[in-house]
Design goal:
Layout: E1 2-4, E2 10-12, H1 21-31, H2 79-108, H3 115-143, H4 152-158, H5 171-198, H6 202-226
Antiparallel strand pairs: 1-2
Helix pairs in contact: 1-5, 2-3, 2-4, 2-5, 3-6, 5-6
Amino acid sequence: MIKKLRGGNMQNENHNEILNEDFKIVQQNVSEFQDDFKLSKSGFDTTMPGHTTNHPQNMVLRQQPRTVRSEGSGISLPADVRLEMGLMLDDHLCALNVALHQYTKHHWLTEGAESFLSLHHLLDEHIDVTQDHIDRVGERVARLGVVPTAHPVTQHELSYIKHEVEGRYTMRDFLRNDLEHEIKIQHMLRKTIARAHELKDFGTVQVLEEVLLKREDLGYHLWSVLEDDSLVRGMKHFFDGNNDISKTRPINPRIQ
C-alpha cells in the first residue's frame, strides 16, 4: 500500500481506495516524510542537546557518542560497516523512544466508551512491545561497538519521527498519530534491513526482521481500531448544536 518515491517520500499506490478522514491525514503526512538517516551525526557536537553541560564533570571519557570502537567489539565486521549499521540502529533507537513516550501519554489519557478499557489495554501492550524493541535495538548498537544515544532530548533531535505537540486531543487523533509513527518506523526498518543485507550484517538483519514483523502487527492494530465501524452510538450529538453533551444534563433525561 505504501511505496517509496524519488527523494525519499512515500505514497499510497491505490488512489481509488476509499479512505476515511483519519487514513487520509496519515497518508498525506507519510507522503511528506523525509526518510533520511543522520549518518553524519557522530561524536560530540556542541550544538546537539545533551552533548554539553554546565555541571562539573568528574567522569573518565572512554568513547564519544555515536562513534565505533576500531577493535574489540567481538563481531567480525569491519569498523566502517559496524559504524554505519550502528548509526542507523541508533536512529531507530531514538525513534522507538519517541514512540514509547507518545504511547505512554495516550495510555494515561484514554477515555470514552471504547477507550477507557479496551484501548487502555491495547496501548499497554504497545508500550510493552516498544520497550522490548528499544532494548533489542540498543543491545545491537552496543554489540557493534557503537555508543547508543540515551539522553531524551538528544533522542528526539535525532529521531526521524517527532512527538505530537503537548495537550489532550481526541482518541482518534491520538491513534492516528500513533499509526503514522508505525508506518514510518516500518519503512525505515525495511531500509536498514536492505542495507544490512548488502553489508552482510546478518545479525542486524535478524534483529530488525523480528522487530519489523511486530511493528507491522502494531500498525495493523491501530488501523483496525480506526476503521469506520463501531459498537457505540455516533458522536453527532456532540456537535449538533443542541447542547446535550452529557456533562450538561443527566444521562437519562427522565431522571430529575
